[in-house]
Amino acid sequence: TANKRLLVLPGDGIGPEVMREVRRVIDWMDRRRHVSFALEEGLVGGAALEAQGSPCPDVTVERALAADAVLFGSVGGPKWDSLPFDKRPELGILRLRKELGLFANLRPALVLEPLVDASSLKPDVVRGLDLMIVRESTGGIYFGEPRGVETMPNGKRRGVDTEVYTEDEIARVARVAFELARKRTGKMTSVEKANVMQSGRLWRAVVSEIGAAEFPDVQLSHMYADNCAMQLCLRPKQFDVILASNIFGDLLSDLAAAATGSLGMLPSATLGAPDASGRRHALYEPIHGSAPDIAGKGIANPCAQLLSFAMLLRWSFGMEEDAAMIEAAVEKVLAGGLRTADIMGPGTARVGTSVMGDAILREL
Amino acid sequence: TANKRLLVLPGDGIGPEVMREVRRVIDWMDRRRHVSFALEEGLVGGAALEAQGSPCPDVTVERALAADAVLFGSVGGPKWDSLPFDKRPELGILRLRKELGLFANLRPALVLEPLVDASSLKPDVVRGLDLMIVRESTGGIYFGEPRGVETMPNGKRRGVDTEVYTEDEIARVARVAFELARKRTGKMTSVEKANVMQSGRLWRAVVSEIGAAEFPDVQLSHMYADNCAMQLCLRPKQFDVILASNIFGDLLSDLAAAATGSLGMLPSATLGAPDASGRRHALYEPIHGSAPDIAGKGIANPCAQLLSFAMLLRWSFGMEEDAAMIEAAVEKVLAGGLRTADIMGPGTARVGTSVMGDAILREL
Ligand SMILES: CC(C)[C@H](C(=O)O)[C@@H](O)C(=O)O
Ligand SMILES: CC(C)[C@H](C(=O)O)[C@@H](O)C(=O)O
Questions:
Q1: By percentage, how much of chain A surpasses pLDDT 90?
Q2: Which of A1, A304, B93, B241 is the most exposed place for a label (fewest CB within 10 A)?
Q3: Is A254 designated active site?
Q4: Quick check: pTM over 0.90?
């Protein structure tokens, strides 16, 4: 079954080193479980900019379009921080989302029992936390027109962005969230600022309509984005699935991740619409960035990248068993007391990237 | 000195009951410290809607314009939740901000030693926390045009909001933040999404220019809004002054408030530009909402409203000594172990709104 076309894009910073550990797991799957992937590796971010003059070269987009799934590392670094907009490494991920139509960004925030103490929140507040943020990721203020910085007649500058959502854009991402809620605890919270924003008013109306018409079994509630930020800090366990726009989802998903205290553990998936044959574009990436401060030191946590690969197996290849096996291996290694520096706690042993990888492979 | 024109707008929910405790302090100041205010009371929010047909009647705006300072309670409640946009109680505060030109919303997040344990964050993470968020409050996506929900030629709906900032709008609120940073620890973090938003790009540029030209002594750094949300949860004490747009400031200031764990304690000030004589419009309000679930039960915490009044004395009337006296009285009462329900902890005594007010008056 070698028609699992997988594009691997390690990117910048710690991307390549954590991806190396995933490659070892892929090799192991090939040898031991006779699963083989048609694997290609490509360039993105600063790495692509230096080699090919663009943070997201056309060849990378073409390969991503041809692949069944993309495993993305991370992009960016101080080296490229002062470049103009269209050269910045972040464009790598933004362009891929847009060109592949990856409109639903799934961001789980999960606290594994061995890591309860890693959180800055009290243990009781986060123990057992397991929520999923569904963030719209090809619309809203990230792409809306008009946008730009212009000079007004009086000679002063003015910066403009447009938050715009059509009802179809809202409906399709809402359906992804509702489906997930149905499979989980049946509870969903839709977030906006309907008290201030017009697009928020439409967001609330459309989500309510879809809910009533197609998901009457899901318990839907609405919350303002400022209150949601507050509640994620006060009582994160009240949530199951949270649905939000691109920009609110950006802040809220990072906040939820921070609440877990284990950023180096969290994967994400970004999905497109299924075509007639059920095939959908999808990209998987850890939520940690390129972490330039620790890149090349061999101390980065490979778990988030590996768990992103597990999400990929589950969502893109239907390999639930293999996904669960990888997740269980990671959890066992943590329960055994091994930790990379980012998730260290009292009574645990600090190891580097590859020793962590070794231990996970041994578990497998 | 009876020319301290003060407009009191209790509003809805717990607004009137916590305002009652402030009125007692005002009476005490009159009797004991011979400070008298020319005090008027007005209607806003649902209360104004019911009495006068608008959540922010013209007469309220006129009185606010004529006053030296406005002490605002809180607005809103489930009763008015399904009203159309232009009738909603929230319009009360939005219209006042706009008509009075209150562009700088100051939101302190402070953890008093007796309340360290009230936070959902670990004591070490929040002990001694003392930061100030300066939120732009008359611009951005809250007011930008075009905005609205329209029907497209294909019959589908589309919601639009516009995030727009001119360099003057950015500069004036940045100056407020820089001034504050200068008086505090000299550190300021400006927040935007310059990696994604054009207005964010301008925001970063203008703040950098003002900083370099006028506040070279302030240590300025820039942070993306998603990262700031994360950092407020992970290590809130890294911040001193945070500067943000209206919408990012909305989320981040509520998050910072949640991090303190004592929402019922936090005041805020919203300031306009000083005129030639140095007089500026200003409105002070607790950050907690109208809390309809506990309204009328006599259990609401009056501290935030009272501390808002202390901010008013400091910022609008230059009465530093009286402001500090009120703040000290509140802190002493808490140190003595009295708590309203919202900030209860082990070993403390639960009291209602008026007993808390009594205790503070006794301290004074
Ligand atoms: C890198 C950046 C453009 C991106 C975003 O804002 O979407 C990131 O923060 C994310 O959440 O994936
Ligand atoms: C009530 C609402 C319109 C308001 C806002 O979004 O500005 C509130 O959340 C605030 O922060 O004062």
A1: 92
A2: A1
A3: yes
A4: yes
